[in-house]
Structures are given as C-alpha cells and as structure tokens.
Amino acid sequence: MSVVAVQNLALGFGERTLFAGLNFELQAGELLAVLGPNGTGKTSLIRIMLGLLAPSAGSVAIEGCPPRERCHRIGYVPQQRVFDRDLPLRGRDLVRLGLDGHRWGFGRIGAEDGTRIDAALSEVGATPYADAPVGLLSGGEQQRLRVAQAIVADPVLILADEPLLSLDLAHQRDVVDLLDARRRSAGTPVVFVTHDVNPVLHTVDRVLYLAPDGWAIGTPDDVLTSETLSDLYRTEVDVLRVRGRVVVVGTPDDQHVHHVDNGH
Amino acid sequence: MFAQLLGEHFVHTALWAGAVVAVVSGVIGVFVVTRGMSFAVHAISELGFTGAAGALVVGIDPVVGVLGGSLLVGLVLGLLSLRGRERDSAIGAVLAFGLGVGVLFLSLYQGYATEATNLLFGSIVGVSDAQLRTLVIVGAIVLAGVAVLYRPLFFSSVDPEIAAARGVPLRVLSVGIFLLLALTTAEAIQVVGVLLVLTLVITPAAAAQHLTRRPAVALLLSVAIALVSTEGGILLSLVKPWPTSFFITSISFSAYLAARGLGWRKERGRVSRRTPSRTESAGAAV
Q: Core-most of A238, B49, B105, B276, by most CB within 10 Å?
C-alpha cells in the first residue's frame, strides 16, 4: 500500500496556474526529490501535503486520510532558521516539541518519552550538544536537531523543505545521510524539496521536476535529461553530467550554471 | 514606624495584591518576550487607560473600564495575528488613536485628578479588599488559561512554522495569549499603573532569559524576579515615602542589568570553550 497518494492535484492563484494534473504515489522507504526553479509551487506542494493549503483541485491522501488528520504523524524539516541567541530553549527541548508540543496542558516527560528523545538525539549525533541553547548552535547543528525533532514521534512520512539552504557542503551531506538512513531503517518515505539535486542525487529514487509550463516525474536518469527539461521549459536546455554532478544550463530563469546559485 | 506599618491591614492587602499581580505578570511575560510582543503590552495598557478614563466619565468602576479597554484591544490584535513590521505599525496606529480618546475622556471627567494619576502610575496601597478579591479571581483565570495552553503556546512561540505543520492552531493561540495578556495588563495597571506595566510584564521575563536555557526554569525565575520587585518595592515605599512604582521599577531593572551581565559572561565562556573543537560554531551561530 502506498503511504502517499496524490491525485490530479492542481494549484493556482487567480489566473496563474502553478501546477495541474499532478499524480504520483509514494511507497514505504521511497525518497522523492522535488526540483524546479523558484515560483513553481515546490513549497506550496509541501504545504498542501501538510494540510496547511487547500489545492485548487485534486486530493492528497496520507495513509488514506486527509493530511489534516495525519499531520501529527508527519515529520517536517524546514529551512534552517536563525534562533535568537538568548532564547531559553535547549536542543533537547526543541526535539521534545516534535513529540508533544501540539498537546494541550503542561505535560510531563515520562521515562518512555525521555528515552525516545535521547534515541532521536543520538540517531542524528546531537547528543554532545543536546543541552546547549539552540541559539548558540551552528546552522548544521540546528538542522541535525530539526531532523531529530522530525523523527522523534516515529512519523509515517517526512517532508523536508529546502533543509540544506545556507549549509556548507559537509553539513548538507550530513543532513541528507540522516534522512537517507531513516528511510532505510524505518521505511519512512521522504519528500525532499531542493533547488539543487546534487546533494541527494546519489540516493534519490525519483525526482519530481516542477517547471513553469509543466512537470515530470521519474528516475533521475529519465527526468534530468536535455530532452525532458527542454520540453518542460519549451526552450533549448542542456543537462550535463560533470564528475557525477548534474548541471543544468540554459533555463530561462538563470543564464549561468543552474545548481550553483538559484537566486537564493 | 516601619514595624508599625507592617501591622496595618492595608499593607497586608497591598502585599497580597502585589504577589498576585507579580505571579501572573511573570508567567505571561515569558510568552510575551518570546513572541516579541512588548509593544503590544504597551498598547494594551494604554487602551486600558482609555477604558478607565471612559469609565470615570460615565461614573462606573474604572477597573471595569480597564478590563473592557484592554480586552477589546487584545481581541482585535489577537484576531489580526500580524507579524513583524505590519504588527508594529498597526499597534502604533491603534495606540495613538486610543490615547487621544483617553485624553478627551480625562478632559470631560470632572472628578479628582488623583484618580487619573493613580491610573497612570499605580496605587497599590489603595487596593481595597473587594479589589483584591477581583485580582485573585482574574489571576486564577489567567493561570488556568496558561496551564491549558502551555505546550502549544510555547511551541508556537518559539517555532511557529513547525507548530503549524504539526497541527497547532496558531490563530486560536494568538487570540488566547492576547486575551490572557489583556487580563494580566488590567491587573498590573492597578499596581504599577498604565505607564509602568512593562516593568512587571517584560523586565522579569527578559532578565530570566539571560539566566537560564531551560524553559521551565525561565518561567520560575521570571515569577521570582517579579515577586521580589513588587514585594520589595512595596516594603521600601513604607520605609521611604517615594512612589511604590519607582521602587518596583528600580528593583526589576537592577535584576535585568545583573542578568544581562551574568548572561554575557556565560555566553562568552561557552563560545570560547566550543571554538577549538568546532571552528565553524562561533561564526555560524551569529
């Protein structure tokens, strides 16, 4: 049974259509990268899957249910965001919010909850700084805690929205490896929004490419070709493979090498 | 003289009233500081003043006016649930107009000028038994509200984006915290006055942030600092007949300065300890 079923999904604002007729399913343990230039609805797709945004047409089902009924079971990893330096919040507290932050009342951490928090911290290698204030941690350390926060409640699905932005290459690899390890060990499917496919290229099963005039889904070898992307962009686009990296040249939105800097 | 005053009933009432207001303000302050709502506190208290001035004009209990004025503004601001600059300018516009109306009410009011002064700067020693009872009831409502909302409120304060993704109802909580803040402000006005509400709602929580990284400890420290400031201020005003509000603000501000000093030293220690092993930490954390 598929974990996620997206059927005939469309999103538009006024006369502008971001995407339409989107169909795909995600199986347990699958890693899907969502690619494409800015403004094509990558983040909106994640928000629809979280139940925070209503689509113009079509539906998303998580384990057969509407997203809002499953949102407590979805792990979400956002872009790295700077915390205030004096925020009274330790890494451990941040992770705990992923476990019971949505429940009413004060709540007490039971022994079982404590074990789960410790396990999540240790799984992402954040144990050494679990008691440090989050505002004083580096971007890479904060993103590890974000992954721990997303997995602590044993989610059925992980949605990651540009989790690598503003991280250096070593930390990008760390975050990708953590999510990759999780989907292999626990079978949790991962949807990974990124403007640069290269950090996840070695592990991704399929890519969904959202372009201004259409979309394509398939294995990287099927989608990331000059032919497919030229069709999507309706212009001459070259996809080059340089030392195992994918470089897209000639898209209308930026004239220089696509993956280096996509306007962020 | 001091010992004699300590035996007086009105002093006991003042100390109890101060304690109630300090506990409630210290608790709410933690959320106010985390959410960056200091300016909203100011607006709500000034509109509480407008409400009180209006109540004086029509001849009802100013406390009712304070509650009405601050709850109305709290509700509106909470429903708007604005963020950042948009919220600041909206609050500024509302605040200015509300204060203008308050000035009109004051000029229409034919009673004693001290009533107005008490509103602006507080009159803790004038708290009656009936007022104390109201303070306790309203305080209990605020604390019960915080107890129910605590976890999702904290979640949405430190991490709104993830909280929304996890199904936390941000708008409901926004309205909730603004209403609780309005009740708290209406309480604090009676102790320190409209102009000095920030000294109980902001300063203790801001000081506590610099002293600990544990959310629960920050809450307790904030309450402790608010309590020491209020009770200390009342006691000092028995020794020297200066305004109670002056002593309260002085103590809470001293606590804030001391906490900043301590926090600054702690942070430096932490960064220099971390730097040798992970060179990126110090720079990237900024």
A: B49
Contact state of B150 with A105 under an 8 Å Cβ cutoff = yes
Whether residue A86 and residue B278 make contact (CB cut-off 8 A), yes or no, is: no
A chain contacts of residue B220, beta-carbon cutoff 8 Å: none
Could you list the pLDDT tens digit for every one of the 286 residues in chain B? 778 888 888 899 999 999 999 999 999 999 999 998 888 898 999 899 899 999 989 988 888 898 999 999 888 888 876 666 788 888 888 889 998 999 899 888 877 777 777 878 888 878 889 889 999 999 999 999 999 999 999 999 999 999 999 999 999 999 999 999 999 998 888 888 887 888 999 999 999 999 998 999 999 999 999 999 999 999 999 999 898 989 999 999 999 999 999 887 766 655 544 443 343 333 333 3
Interface confidence, given as ipTM, is 0.90
Residue B243: inside a domain, yes or no? no
CATH code, B22: 1.10.3470.10
Nearest to B80 by CA among B181, B12, B175: B175
Contact A98 B149 (CB under 8 A): no
* Ordered domains of chain A (ranges, CATH): 4-249 (3.40.50.300)
Q: Is residue B207 part of a domain?
A: no
Chain B contacts of A135, Cβ < 8 Å?
Answer: 285
Q: Using alpha carbons, select from B44, B15, B239 the residue that is nearest to residue B135.
A: B15
| Residues whose CB is less than 8 angstroms from the CB of residue B27 and which lie 6 or more positions away in sequence, other chains included | B142, B143, B146, B219, B222, B223
Give the structural domain span for B39.
2-195
pTM for the model stands at 0.89
Q: What is the DSSP letter of B7?
A: T
Q: B196: Cβ–Cβ under 8 A, 6 or more apart, which residues? A: B121, B122, B245, B248, B249
| A85/B168 Cβ within 8 A | no
**How far, in Å, CA of A243 to CA of A245, rounded?**
6
Inside any domain, residue B238: no
Considering the domain boundaries, does residue B265 fall inside one? no
CB of B155 within 8 Å of a chain A CB? The answer is yes
Residue B202: strand, helix, or coil: coil
Total count of domains within chain B: 1
Whether A97 and B278 lie within 8 Å, measured CB to CB: no
A contact test, residue of B166, B214, B223 with most A CBs within 10 A: B166
> Are B165 and A50 an interchain contact pair (Cβ–Cβ within 8 Å)?
yes
